[in-house]
Amino acid sequence: MNKLLCVIALAFVPHATAAQEPICMPGDQLEAALVDWYGEAPMPETVSSPTSTVRLWASEETGTWTLVTYLIDGTACVLNDGQDLDRSVRGADIIAKLMP
Q1: pTM of the model
Q2: Is the pLDDT of residue 59 over 80?
Q3: Crossing angle (nearest 10°) for helices 27-38 and 3-12
């Protein structure tokens, strides 16, 4: 299990595993965790649909990244995360590349 899902799963959803269901919580709580724990900031890259928006978060200092989907009810879910983001890919292409 990757680092972000591990920490969030232990803190908020102790009985869920990353392989079974995504980790979701109120968007402001997830954003605070990304900023406070990993120093990540929202990137300009987003992909939107009528029911959700996918946004990439990343840290230039640590090299970590997190792909988050925001639902219209204010819930945010971690779709994927990792390290060493390939910054040569831009816009919607980078989000498509990082989708699980």
Answers
A1: 0.76
A2: yes
A3: 130
